[in-house]
């Protein structure tokens, strides 16, 4: 289902990865960006420094988005989630 008829502020998908996941991170970030472009969603993917406790960064990213967004929906996905369109 595509929501391209809606405003581009309708949905934002968030993710991040660290350097230890850079191989799969780059591939899947590109796929998620393509999916978002196709469906007129916004996609934000950060690359984090592993030495700064990246598992806590998810909460910081969520709080920042919730406080500063104009989107109707915000979705989190781990970078190793793969989209398959059939």
Protein model, in words:
There is one protein chain. This protein has 86 residues and is of the alpha/beta class. It has helices at 22-39, 54-68; strands at residues 11-18, 42-48, 73-76. It has one domain (11-76). The protein contains two helices and three strands. Strands 2-1-3 form a three-stranded parallel sheet, sandwiched between helices. It is flat and about 35 Å long.
Short description:
The protein has 86 residues and is of the alpha/beta class. The protein is 38% helix and 22% strand.
Features:
disordered N terminus, three-stranded parallel beta sheet, 86 residues, alpha/beta, 22% strand, 2 helices
The spatial strand order of the largest sheet comes to: 2-1-3
**Structure classification:** alpha/beta
What are the low-pLDDT stretches, counting only 5+ consecutive residues below 50? 1-7
The total count of strands amounts to 3
Rough outline: flat
Q: What is Rg?
A: 13 Å
End-to-end CA span: 12 Å
Beta content: 15-25%
Topology as H/E string?
A: EHEHE
Please work out how many helical segments DSSP would assign. 2
**How many structural domains does the protein architecture include?**
1
**Helix-residue proportion:** 25-40%
Main β sheet profile:
3 strands, parallel
Overall mean pLDDT stands at 82
């Amino acid at each position: 289902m595509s929501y391209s008829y809606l405003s581009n502020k309708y949905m934002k998908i968030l993710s991040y990865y660290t350097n230890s996941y850079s191989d799969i991170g780059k591939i899947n970030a590109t796929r998620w960006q393509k999916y978002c472009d196709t469906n007129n969603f916004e996609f934000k993917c950060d690359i984090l420094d592993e030495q700064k406790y990246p598992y806590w960064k998810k909460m910081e990213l969520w709080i920042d988005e919730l406080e500063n967004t104009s989107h109707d929906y915000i979705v989190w996905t781990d970078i190793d989630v793969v989209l398959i369109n059939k």
